[in-house]
Design goal:
Radius of gyration: 22 Å
Structural class: alpha/beta
Oligomer: single chain
Largest sheet: 5 strands, parallel
CATH class of the largest domain: Alpha Beta
CATH architecture of the largest domain: 3-Layer(bba) Sandwich
Strand order of the largest sheet: 3-2-1-7-19
Shape: elongated
Strand content: 25-35%
Order of helices and strands: EHEHHEEEEEEEHEHEHEEEEEEHEEEH
Helix content: 10-25%
């Protein structure tokens, strides 16, 4: 019997973990597997992204190797983003052509949210998401003295520490009255602020940025709604994430009111031949911006989906 084609869109941590689970099972023998990655590099550990500034390389952070994919019989297509999805024809489209699938897994992750601030497109404004982002930040920092992170969550604090490691005077600007406002109460936020400032990072809370303009003593000036301002040489936005669900929307898959590809308990979308895992998936009205729930989704899809495992015995194991 000829093999079916399984396409995985996204070569991040969750997509790679799904592949590890799949190839360790007998089900892998039933499929020709194609994986599309938007980035030039194969999957790497974003949780430890800040270590890149401390000297780690892509090889240090990589989840696997190109040889691993070859050995598993997986066709890895990097730097080839999927731009279209035709559910009727069961094809995905990239700049290089169309590819047919029998089953499709969307592991497209998320993208950084950048607040709609005038001037956010300035060349020295960045997000903190990929190795290419970090390369751009490092290049900007070489001729700068100060840097600001917009967003006082966990990733924002990591980014601020990274700026400090690059030799910049680091600042954190947070709209809420305290750092990590979702996770911490007033006392916890005050303690965290004290610890962060002890590290040499200046914290500015209750600041709403209204515009980013040219600075007088630095490259940029951030104007705040309270008529104060802060000058800096570069800005890193770390103000949250949004699910990368553009393919789902364009193809008519069900998405949540605030984004995210709706999936059931088996990580299957409104199309029985399409599945979603990780930060792009909306399960029980929730998006999970952490890798551990994404790994659980990957294992769930591997165990439970009739699309990924088609045994003669009952599906749920």
């Amino acid at each position: 019997m000829s093999k079916k084609t399984l396409i995985v869109v996204g070569n991040g941590m969750v997509g790679h973990h799904f592949l590890e689970q799949l190839v360790a099972s007998p089900a892998a023998a039933d499929y020709d597997i194609l994986v599309f990655g938007e980035e030039k590099q194969l999957a790497y550990d974003r949780v430890h992204l800040s270590e890149y500034f401390a000297g780690s390389t892509h090889a240090d952070l990589a989840m696997g190797t190109a040889d691993w994919y070859t050995d598993q019989g997986i066709q890895l297509l990097l730097n080839e983003p999927v731009t279209g999805l035709d559910r009727d024809q069961r094809t995905v489209t990239t700049p290089k052509g169309d590819y047919n699938y029998d089953e499709l897994v969307l592991a497209t992750g998320s993208y950084p949210f950048v607040p709609p601030i005038e001037g956010k497109e300035h060349p020295h404004c960045f997000v903190y998401r990929t190795l290419e982002d970090l390369d751009a930040i490092r290049a900007s920092a070489q001729a700068g003295k100060s840097g600001v992170v917009v967003g006082g969550g966990l990733l924002g604090l990591e980014a601020a520490n990274a700026l400090k490691s690059l030799g910049l005077q680091a600042h954190v600007v947070e709209f809420a009255p305290r750092l990590m406002p979702v996770q911490l109460d007033i006392d916890g936020g005050a303690l965290l602020r004290h610890k962060i400032e002890e590290l040499g990072v200046q914290v500015h809370t209750e600041k709403a940025t209204t515009a980013i303009v040219a600075g007088e003593e630095a490259r940029l000036r951030m104007n705040f709604s309270d008529d104060s301002h802060l000058e800096t040489d570069l800005i890193v936005f770390s103000a949250g994430i949004r699910p990368q669900d553009a393919l789902a929307r364009s193809s008519g898959l069900e998405v949540g009111e605030r984004g995210g590809i709706v999936v059931n308990d088996q990580c299957t979308t409104s199309d029985p031949h399409i599945h979603a895992i990780g930060e792009c998936a909306l399960w029980d009205q929730r998006i999970f911006g952490l890798v551990a729930p994404g790994y659980t989704m990957a294992r769930t899809l591997r165990r439970c989906s009739t699309a990924i495992r088609r045994p003669r015995s009952p599906v749920l194991t």
